[in-house]
User: Which sequence fits this backbone?
């Protein structure tokens, strides 16, 4: 639990440093009470730290999944280009690269142009 709290404080410090006006998110110096109350909750309570940690971990997991999917798609496109340049059929390229037939046909037309 201490590790999560440390991580939440770290991520809150990143927010202070990168996405907030000069002076950070010091709730005591904010003009709008509603915003100050929310920032105070996230920065000064255990529940707020846990909430921020959970949100940041979900965001990180989502980004990791997106990165894996993008990398796999790029790898499949490169594989399809290689197969097509070696003379493989469109059907076999679709099967091996896991790309749609339309995507493979588009790559094939670009390679022959």
Assistant:
């Amino acid at each position: 639990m201490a590790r999560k709290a440390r991580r939440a404080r770290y991520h809150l410090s990143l927010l202070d440093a990168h996405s907030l006006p000069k002076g950070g998110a010091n709730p005591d110096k904010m003009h709008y009470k509603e915003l100050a109350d929310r920032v105070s909750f996230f920065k000064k309570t255990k529940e707020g730290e846990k909430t921020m940690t959970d949100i940041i971990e979900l965001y990180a997991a989502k980004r990791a999944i997106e990165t894996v999917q993008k990398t796999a798609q790029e790898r499949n496109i490169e594989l399809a280009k290689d197969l097509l340049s070696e003379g493989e059929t469109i059907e076999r390229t679709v099967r091996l690269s896991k790309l749609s037939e339309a995507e493979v046909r588009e790559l094939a037309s670009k390679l022959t142009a």
About this structure: The longest helix spans residues 46-85. The chain has a mean pLDDT of 85.
